[in-house]
Amino acid sequence: MKIWNKSPLFRIGTALAVVAALTFSLHLVRVPGTSAPDFACGNSSGTRVNIKIDAGESGSSIAQSLAAAGVVKSAQAYFRVAVGDTRSQKVAPGNHSIDVGICATQALEQLLDSARITGLINIFEGAWLSEIIPQFYTAKMSVADVASAIRNVSKPKGFTTLEGLLFPAQYSFEDGTLATPAMQSMVNRAELEMRKAGFYTSREKFTPQQFLIIASLIQAEGDTKDFAKISQVIRNRLTKGMPLQFDSTVHYVKKTRGSVFLSTQSTLINSAYNTYKRYGLPPGPINNPGADALLASVNPVAGDWLYFITVAPSDTRFTSDINQFNKWKIEYKKNLRAGKFRSNK
């Protein structure tokens, strides 16, 4: 746990010392039923400190950091509030800009405010590189700096593209952080997760980059519960010399989201990523897959499936029979016309 930007003016000694240093009145109160001193709610010095919270950090550790920074009067005060409020479990990792000299309840509210997380870059599972890069600009990194990072970031041996190597997670960087170390931390996390998934110890013929390509296809094509089956379909089609014919590869080329339907004309696009026209795996990942997809890429479930189709939301079916697949396709088209695939948002 690190705390940045802590001014010596806010080392809490006695209440009177704080009043003199900050020129505002902080009235000490007690948390009801406890002996934990707390500042009165509604007070604020108008000054902030940066509190870094690590993924999985305990409430007691957060409480100690808040107290040490002068945010709350005592660690016990925040801990009592956190224990009594289940929202405390949703405090996101990252660098939080928090007011000094506030009550524990206010501290929790500010920790839950995503607007107070500095340099926030949130990568969702399956995000494209083209969707991630603009977040670096929002995190106050310059266009030139980001371009340099894309060129200079160190990729694991054998990987040729940056797509797929920015591991999905919520990242937070201090103001002034350069793009290269920020991006490198994402790549390093991806390599760690690939090692954990077994990319480098598998006895299959696939290289680590090919496993990552498979993981990206799995991520784009189905729900988590179907990942292992999709992984097997990919293998079965490759073994039989069949084109993968994954809609997601065409959507990647066209940079279109939110559309289930893929026109016949779209399947004719001339691209190495178009698995309707090209055999084998695409030349690189089509997104940045999460941990579940990475694991499924190395651990398929046994089955003879060659076809799968999402007939309705959360209803994906697998078969080795083309006739059965075509029947399900008719059902899918009916559901599509009926609006079952429309977003509820």
Automatic annotation (TrEMBL):
Is Ligase a UniProt keyword of this protein?
Answer: no
GO MF entries: lytic endotransglycosylase activity
What GO CC annotations are associated with the protein? plasma membrane
Reactions it catalyzes: a peptidoglycan chain = a peptidoglycan chain with N-acetyl-1,6-anhydromuramyl-[peptide] at the reducing end + a peptidoglycan chain with N-acetylglucosamine at the non-reducing end
Could you say which residues are annotated as the site Important for catalytic activity?
A: E221
**Enzyme Commission code(s) on record:** 4.2.2.29
Top enzyme class, one word, equals lyase
What's the superkingdom here? Answer: Bacteria
Q: Which UniProt keywords apply?
A: Cell membrane, Cell wall biogenesis/degradation, Lyase, Membrane, Transmembrane, Transmembrane helix
Give one Pfam hit by family name. Answer: YceG
Q: Which GO terms describe its biological process?
A: cell wall organization; peptidoglycan biosynthetic process
Q: Which NCBIfam families match?
A: endolytic transglycosylase MltG
PANTHER family given in the database record? ENDOLYTIC MUREIN TRANSGLYCOSYLASE
Q: Which family does it belong to?
A: Belongs to the transglycosylase MltG family.
Q: What does this protein do?
A: Functions as a peptidoglycan terminase that cleaves nascent peptidoglycan strands endolytically to terminate their elongation.
The molecule here is called Endolytic murein transglycosylase
